[in-house]
Specification:
It is a single chain. This protein has 194 residues and is of the alpha+beta class. It has a domain at 6-91 and 143-190. It contains 8 helices and 4 strands. It has a 4-stranded mixed β-sheet, sandwiched between helices. Helix 2 crosses helix 8 (174-190) and helix 3 (37-51) runs antiparallel to helix 7. The radius of gyration is 17 Å and the shape is globular. The two termini are 32 Å apart.
Length: 194
């Protein structure tokens, strides 16, 4: 587990270009969740096999990667035993299947629980623009959800997840993932400047 501090993350946010931070935190560094690169790759390989995706398309993001939450509402909170694990899955196929499902909901939207309905609306307003689909409230209803939900639950029970919830966000391509993360870092950095 990482020993990254809120102060060190704030310092990096103020000194480094957002593109550099995205590459470092989500591509170059071993995620804070893992003790070493080998355990990180093994865990991703197991999950990729279960989801039937490429291991190269799975990227640990958020506090599980950095060691500190990058959500402005969480005030640079450290990754903790109760923190969830956020994964980016870059898959044009799964993005397109999900996007078509979202657009095709029609009146079926109102058969979903209210939190899921609100999440669909959030995609209309913001997320799809960035080439991303957040599955947190929707995965159980999505076309491949019945396959993925039990597999994510299985991986949640395997070390080092230790019972943490695993959330998957789909990205249309790597450029979408990078653009979304850079935009989030720029927004976070704005909150640090007087």
């Amino acid at each position: 587990m990482s020993t990254t501090t809120a102060a060190s993350v704030k310092d990096q946010l103020l000194k480094e270009r957002p593109h550099v931070l995205v590459a470092r935190w989500f591509l170059e560094d071993t995620p804070a969740l893992f003790k070493d690169r080998a355990s990180h790759v093994a865990w991703k390989r197991d999950l990729a096999e279960l989801l039937r995706v490429s291991v190269f398309d799975l990227i640990v993001v958020g506090s599980a990667a950095v060691g500190i939450s990058l959500n402005p509402a969480k005030n640079f909170k450290a990754f903790a035993p109760t923190s969830d694990i956020d994964l980016a899955l870059v898959s044009a196929h799964h993005f397109d299947v999900s996007w078509r499902w979202l657009r095709g909901l029609g009146a079926g939207l109102y058969r979903l629980p209210e939190p899921a309905q609100n999440w669909v609306r959030e995609h209309e307003r913001r997320l799809v623009y960035w080439g991303t689909i957040a599955t947190d409230q929707l995965l159980a209803y999505m076309p491949f959800g019945h396959e993925w939900v039990p597999h994510l639950s299985t991986m949640s029970g395997q070390d080092p997840a230790q019972g943490r919830e695993i959330n998957v966000r789909l990205y249309r391509d790597f450029a979408s993932l990078e653009a979304y993360q850079v935009a989030c870092i720029k927004k976070l950095r704005l909150g640090l400047t007087p």
